[in-house]
Amino acid sequence: MLHIIGIGRLGKTILNKAYQSGVNATFTGVLKSEHQINQDDLPINLIDFELDYIINPAAVLNQICNNSTKARFIVISGLGGRHGASLLESLTEYLLKNAIPHHSIGVCPFVFEGTLRRQKAIDTILKLQSNPNFTYFDNNLIIEKLNGKIKIDDAFKAVDGDIIKLIANLSTNHLPFSPTAS
Fold first, then answer.
1. How many helices (H) and strands (E) does the chain have?
2. What is the DSSP string of 17-66?
3. Model-level pTM?
4. Which of 22, 70, 94, 182 lies most in the core, judged by the most C-beta atoms within 10 Å?
C-alpha cells in the first residue's frame, strides 16, 4: 500500500493534485489545526501537527498505517517553513534507518520569500542529499529557465506539475524506492 504524506500547506496542495490526477494511494496531511480545512472534500486524512513528531517520527507513521510491513511512503514538504523541513528530515531518516521503502520530496522556497527560509531549505537539502530516495525541487529554477518571463502563479503550477509527474511515476511504476535504490 502506498501512503503519501503531505506536510504543511504545500504538502496538502500536492496531495489534492495527486488525488485529482488519479494517483492510487492513501493520502494523509500533517498540518497545524488552523490549516486543516478540507474545502475540496477529497479523501485526505488530516493529522494535527505536533512538535513531538519531529522527535518521534514513528508516531506519525503509526497513525497512518499501524506499522504495516507492506507500506511504502512518499513524503513531501516545503523546506522553508518552521517545522515542515524538520519533520521531513526526521521522517526520512527514520524510514531510511528502518529500511522502509520511501521517497522524500522537498521544495525550496522562492528567493523573495526570504534569506532565512532559503537557508533553512538549503541546510535540509545538504542533510538529506546523500539519501538516494530524496528529491528536491527549487521553485527559482523555473523562473531562471524562462529568464523571469513567467508569472509566480504559473511558476507554482509548473513546479507542482513536475512534482505530480514524479509521484505518478513512483506510484505507477511501483519503483522500489528502497534505501538501497540507486
1. 7, 6
2. HHHHTT--SEEEEEE-GGG---TT--SEEEEE--THHHH-THHHHHHHHT
3. 0.87
4. 94
Amino acid at 168: A
- All three cell numbers of 61, joined, read 507513521
Q: In this structure, what DSSP letter does residue 9 have?
A: H
The C-alpha cell of 49 is what?
501537527
Residue type, 160: D
**Per-residue CA distances from 103 to 43, 112, 141 (Å):** 22, 28, 22
Give me the residues paired with residue 44 across strands: 27
Q: Cell numbers 521517497 label which residue?
A: 103
* Residue 34 grid coordinates: 488552523
Largest CA distance in the chain: 47
User: In 10 A of CB 133, how many CB atoms?
Assistant: 25
pLDDT digits 0-9 by tens, 112-168: 889 999 999 999 999 999 988 999 999 888 877 777 777 888 888 889 999 999 999
Supply 73's cell numbers. Answer: 511512503
